[in-house]
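Changelog-linked ticket: NAP example.
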Amino acid sequence: MRAIWLKQFGDPSVLVPGAAPDPVPGAGEVLVAVEYANTTFVETRFRATGAGPFRAELPMVPGNGVGGTVTALGEGAPAGLLGRRVVASLSGRGGYAELAVAAASAVHPVPDGLALDEAVALLADGRTAVLQLRAARPAAGERVLVEAAAGGVGTLLVQLAVAAGARVVAAAGGERKLALARSLGAQEAVDYREPGWADRVGPVDVVFDGVGGEIGRAAFGLLRPGGRMDSFGLAAGEWAAIPAEAAAGRGVELVAGERTPEALRSATAHALAEGAAGRLRPVIGQRFALAEAAAAHTAIESRATVGKTLLEVRR
Ligand SMILES: NC(=O)c1ccc[n+]([C@@H]2O[C@H](COP(=O)([O-])OP(=O)(O)OC[C@H]3O[C@@H](n4cnc5c(N)ncnc54)[C@H](OP(=O)(O)O)[C@@H]3O)[C@@H](O)[C@H]2O)c1
């Protein structure tokens, strides 16, 4: 099969197209004929240094999420999955390929009414966004700041918070990204590349911090007593790292998305169902051929992307 190899960590040029043996599903696993492979900011960090949530064992075919059709079952895998349109999470390896093996427990049938590319776009980002929303619990009328609001997770968080009745302040870099966030329902938008941006935002009740660093810390400074700070990313290169005492001293709660397998599965299913119902719209901003995985990573790293970036595996 065709696949993308990662043989050393480094800049995007280390993602090299090549041939790989067809994988075979083991017990409890299924084989997926892949149409779309997801790419995420986290995957670009892993490719660069090997750091992050995935097992760093080279050489490997990277890729953490796919969508396609189940074409074979390993022993004990549910027979009902055969021939189904599914999305699947892969523990960080094997996704940038024509065929992928997934644990049956990590497979979600794609609900009717949801296109396969949209389901792949919702797989990781939708799960992450739903988990953060559940942790920070924005209420109707509360003012909610979403950082990287035009990104994969950010575009979904904006929609989920608006649907919860919150007043959303979208923070992002550049007018194109701010306009996208407004089009998704954000009532206010601010460019955090401009000095003094936080002063222009004013007090908020919830911060969704997917950027970290100075931006995350400035956002923390805006929280009212009773507010919630949810740091789930470090796109800036470091976590916001708010000390617990600093939060307690301000009457602010530090919250985090739940990470149990049940919570991850339920959040994914919820995001897919909301997508199928038309209440959550994934923004697929960029599409690349499988062989162009390096270009996809370059685009994500250079902050040039909006929404989700997918690899179209069949072209
Ligand atoms: N996708 C997931 O499932 C998942 C899971 C766990 C954690 N996260 C975390 O959530 C955050 C968002 O992830 P995502 O996949 O949705 O990515 P993304 O938001 O689509 O891309 C990252 C964005 O971060 C912003 N950014 C701010 N400072 C940056 C810097 N110094 N370098 C590069 N980008 C910078 C950029 O938007 P602006 O140009 O608007 O600043 C950039 O587009 C990341 O921190 C990621 O680690 C994601």
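Closing comment: Example verified and attached. The chain is about 30% helix and 25% strand. The first helix runs from residue 41 to 49.
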